[in-house]
Amino acid sequence: MYKNRGKLIRGIEEYAILTAATLILIAGVHLFKFPNRFSFGGVTGIAIVLSALVPITPGTITFLINMLLLLVGFLFLGKSFGIKTVYVSLLMSVGLSVAERLFPIAQPLTTQPVLELMYAIAMPAFSSAILFNIGASGGGTDIIAMILKKCAKLNIGAALFLVDLVIVIASCMVFDVETGLFSLCGLLAKSLVVDGVIESINLCKCFTIICNDPEPICDFITNKLERSATIYHAQGAYEHSKKMIIITIMKRSQAVELRNYIRVNQPSAFIAITNSSEIIGKGFRGFN
pLDDT tens, 35-60? Predict the structure, then answer.
């Protein structure tokens, strides 16, 4: 019973994060991307270009394209089509359509296009990073990538970049060179921001602690911080004295506590701290 309750709580927390991340995505696209006609890839980029050619709003076009892609995704991918991606795609599509009707924006919020471009990149990229980090995506061209991965031997990243580049070139032809150049900057910066946010979210601190008395430190790690550690024997190269080495990994907030504890209680201990954003194992990524 407790196990099922834990799964239910984790599921609620996960979908709350999905919802919050999607709302950030909707806000970034509706407030900054659509009014400035920044077309740096994705379904929303296609919608911005098409909205200049047909009398349909970008939000409605995004909704129609995403629904079509969801249908194609179900046909090609079946059960392997992630429910999280479906949820995010539906929420984003409906959310953009609702935002256009309830909060219409006819022109950019400010007269600073560079500032607006920064927000148009940062908010959706931050949202995408959160979604990718918990195994979801914003749908759209990600669905195409999933289909290509299953059905064709293509470099998916390169293929999607080329699609996005075509959208940017189309924005130059449909709008003007300035809009196209802004869109190109957005396309080049988007992946860098996503990678940076994901790395920051997953950043952990790896401790290598060389000391004489490991027990108090290990007790603090296991009981106070609720983490684990590995201990092994070593020998100093200069005095050939016996030493104990503790290896442990934890989140940044816990790392501060451990560092301060060792400084106060075992000031003679030697500590090496390194950063890592790819920790796979129980208590981190890859395990429940």
Answer: 988 888 788 888 898 988 888 999 89
The answer for 155, left when phi > 0, alpha when psi is -120 to 50, beta otherwise, is beta
Q: pTM for this structure?
A: 0.70
Give the C-alpha separation, 38 to 127, whole Å.
17
What is the rounded CA–CA span in Å between residue 199 and residue 165?
A: 25
CB 116 within 8 A of CB 25: no
Go through 232-244 and write b for each residue having 16 or more CB atoms within 10 A of its CB, e for each that does not: eeeeeeeeeeebb
Find the angle CA(39)-CA(41)-CA(42) to the nearest 5 degrees: 115
Q: Are 169 and 150 in contact (CB under 8 A)?
A: no
Provide the angle, in degrees to the nearest 10, between the axes of the packed helices 113-133 and 2-28. Answer: 160
Q: Which residues pair with 246 in a beta bridge?
A: 209, 231
Backbone angles phi, psi at 273, to 5 degrees: -120, 125
Which two structure tokens, joined as six digits, stand for 18? 């999905």
